[in-house]
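Example 174, ligand guanosine-5'-monophosphate.
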Amino acid sequence: MEEPLSLRVLIPREEIAARVAAMGRQISADYAGKELLLVVVLRGAAVFAADLCRHLTTQTVLDFISVSSYGSATSTSGVVRFLKDLEESVEGRHVLIVEDIVDTGLTLNYLLENLRTRKPASLVSCTLLDKPSRRRVDIQPDYLGFTIDDLFVVGYGLDFDQYYRNLPDICVQR
Ligand code: 5GP
């Protein structure tokens, strides 16, 4: 087992819960009367998606996708490899990609381009966190929880070396 990091809370659980509920209300209103296919990007977005989907009042189907970027672990290369593809067909569906965090934007950009080729009826993205200062491609999430500074965050699904995903708050190193 690794030495635990010394962490402080950046966004407390109550604030996350309130924001996720508001996002859920917004998405429900925007998709009223339509069926939504949530494409949850593993593993980071699993916790966020689990909370978000319980605030959706429209008919919703959940599916999961897992990608990894080639290259070093610290700098995203922009080349993305599928570790797990969707089980659902995207064609003709209203698709919402659920991400944990948009950093350089390369992952989300790749996913949008890839899913667009599968002919969805509509395709938008939703992310809990955004670090716009790090962006390398011109991309804006359609639904956004919080904008943060250039900090490495863990908790509420986000990891460091696969640890800390289970923390209820979003934290940073002290
Ligand atoms: P992008 O392709 O936008 O650079 O990278 C997005 C992915 O990088 C996220 O889905 C997440 O897995 C990882 N990532 C980016 N910033 C952070 C961060 O501050 N904390 C953690 N735990 N992962 C991050």
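Summary: The first strand starts at residue 7 and ends at 11.
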